[in-house]
Design brief:
The protein has helices at residues 24-35, 47-60, 76-89, 116-139, 169-194, 211-215, 224-236, 241-253, 287-301, and strands spanning 15-18, 39-44, 66-70, 95-98, 142-146, 199-203, 263-267, 272-277. By secondary structure, it is α/β, with parallel strands linked by helices. It has a single domain (12-296), classed as Rossmann fold (3-Layer(aba) Sandwich), CATH 3.40.50.
């Protein structure tokens, strides 16, 4: 049986935060959650885009309880401010959906010298999650990591994690999406070992037509080649952004969702079709590599768990 949002119970009294909720999958997830009565707080890099998104959610669900927080996942100070704001705006937090992402941009380095895709898609969310862990534990909440079918083509290159020797936008994107999934599985194992109340649940949207492809990059600008390519494949293959958001909502809010299970489309090479427990490439199950990735990540951005 395929999961749909009709499976969700009434979510009145629940609160969800979505990174990158101003457009695409994040915006559609916000609509679905708000439509079920939940309070939703989105993050965005720009206030005008966030305000437009909130207006769209309210048009979809009049009276929706929605708010926003400014967040740049490449900026440690912005992450700290956003985490503090999320704690203030969300006295309880039932799930944090790690949705914001960058895809196949021209080679770009952050102020810390990190490659943009790895910095945004993996490191930034790692930082945000660790900052909000205690708050999520107090809420018996969930951390939802949004990966991609691109994880099947990724490789964690510890010798050149930031693609400093030779930048390839597609290989870097696939690596970051594999990192998202491996992180979720490793986080699940570590949370269970600690007896934490938080669940880690990964998901993916399949191939959904969003601004991530139309812009070629989830921030500003992008690659003309990839924009042209996706303008064609979006019409031929992609499902809607709303359908792509279904696995995010399942992982965040469905009572039956299980920690450590990877939810997403299950048909047509996981690009679309019935939503349920989806395919995981064997490299994402490599626990030795996942442990090393965790250790390397902590060396770059600091320890995830507080010192005991």
């Amino acid at each position: 049986m395929s999961w749909t949002p009709d499976n969700l119970p009434d979510l009145t009294g629940k609160t969800y935060a979505i990174t990158g909720g101003n457009s695409g999958l994040g915006l559609e997830a916000a609509k679905l959650l708000a439509g079920k009565g939940a309070r939703v707080v989105i993050t965005s890099r720009k206030a005008d885009k966030a305000s437009a998104a909130l207006a769209e959610v309210r048009a979809h669900t009049p009276g929706a309880d929605v708010d926003f927080v400014l967040l740049d996942l490449t900026d440690p100070a912005s992450i700290e401010r956003a985490a503090a704001a999320l704690i203030e705006k969300c006295p309880t937090l039932d799930a944090l959906i790690n949705n914001a992402g960058v895809m196949q941009p021209p080679e770009t380095r952050t102020a810390e010298g990190f490659e943009l895709q790895m910095a945004t898609n993996h490191l930034g969310h790692f930082r945000l999650n660790k900052r909000l862990l205690a708050h999520l534990e107090a809420s018996v909440g969930r951390i939802v990591a949004v990966s991609s079918i691109a994880h099947k083509y990724g490789k964690i290159d510890f010798d050149d994690l930031m693609f400093e020797e030779s930048y390839d936008p597609t290989a870097s994107y696939a690596q970051s999406k594999l990192a998202n999934l491996m992180y979720a599985f490793e986080l699940d194992r570590r949370l269970k070992a600690r007896g934490s109340t938080v669940s880690a649940i990964p998901c993916h949207p399949g191939y959904a037509a969003t601004n991530l492809q139309s812009a070629g990059v989830g921030m500003d600008g992008g690659s003309r080649f990839f924009r042209s390519l996706y303008s064609v494949t979006n019409k031929l293959v992609a499902q809607s952004a709303e359908r792509g958001a279904w696995p995010l909502v399942l992982a965040a809010a469905d009572p039956s969702a299980e920690a450590g299970t990877y939810y997403g489309p299950t048909g047509m090479s996981q690009m679309r079709g019935p939503v349920g427990a989806s395919f995981v490439d064997k490299r994402a199950r490599d626990q030795a590599t996942a442990r090393k990735l965790w250790e390397v990540t902590e060396n770059l951005v600091g320890p995830f768990f507080p010192a005991s």
